[in-house]
Amino acid sequence: MSSFLGIGSKRGAYVALAVLTSVWGANWVMMKLALEGADPVVFNVQRTWVAIAVLFVAMAAMRAPLAPQATWTAIVVTGFFQTTVNLGATTVAVAGGGAGRTSVLVFTMPFWTLVIARIVLGERVRGLQWLAVACAFAGLVLVVAPWDWRGDLAPKLWATLSGLGWAAGTVATKHFQREHPTDPQNFIAWQMLVGVLPLTLLPFAFDLAPTRWSVAQVALLFYSGAISTAFGFLLWIAVLKHLPAGTASLNIFAVPPIALLSSMAVFGERLTGNEWAGIALIGAGLAILAAIAWRASRRGAGAELAPAPLEGG
Questions:
Q1: Where are the domains of the chain?
Q2: Which residues contact 305 (CB under 8 A, 6 or more apart)?
Q3: How distant, in Å, are the alpha carbons of 49, 157, 257, 302 from that of 153?
Q4: Three-state DSSP class for 209?
Q5: What pTM did the predictor assign?
Q6: Half-sphere exposure of 149 toward its Cβ, with a 13 Å CA cutoff?
Q7: pLDDT digits (tens, 9 = 90+) for 50-109
Q8: Distance CA 310, CA 248 (A)
């Protein structure tokens, strides 16, 4: 995979990681622009099928097995959380709210992962991880502001649901890979294919607005589906060939700031005082987890915060 993408050294992997972080950060603004010409449900179906096509073409080009290697239980369960819930809720959230604010709420995923992994996998939350979870929860409350039922509460709840779905999909992936390790590209392609099927039926069941096609709309769809989701995943797997998982996973913490700054520049997105305070608390929690992962990587423990099979958007 790494040779397929031209990554042949640790230095090249760091360059690829920087590119990947920028691509994922910019994707939030790209999605927001694309949703000006498409229904969020329809666009999500379109970009997911584009990503699936690219992944299967890449597997065929590398002469990798195309048939599913994981069990159907693993594919269906992971696909539901990772694709149906996560990607579906993300797109709806971006359509109704600011791209930057949405990205921050979706990227509460590492905290939900800690909680869900405690319940499902029996992994204990230890030491400073509790402080990180507490910071994130307090920040989430401030950003969502459940006491204020006016304004854009619904998009915030959709974004939070996306983070939950992403976390549940991550834990499911870890659980099933423990039982029956499979090629990650094969697994992600098949779980995306199965997960998008229920969403694909929605445009036929409801009267959703058709996409207003243009050259710009096609370009935005290509970026979100082919580059950010499919190519981003392939690049992530290639990076992991040269960098420890704990070190590579730290890239996810740079995505929300890039998305927020990009959204402020492009759309003039502005946050309230409570939202800034909440984002600062979420950022503090992410920084704590980053420090834990960095320290573990330095000790050779190979800390794995959370595999990032998709960009969370």
A1: 10-298
A2: 110, 113, 246, 249, 250, 252, 289, 293
A3: 29, 6, 21, 38
A4: coil
A5: 0.83
A6: 0
A7: 999 999 999 999 888 899 999 999 999 999 999 999 988 988 888 888 787 788 788 778
A8: 14
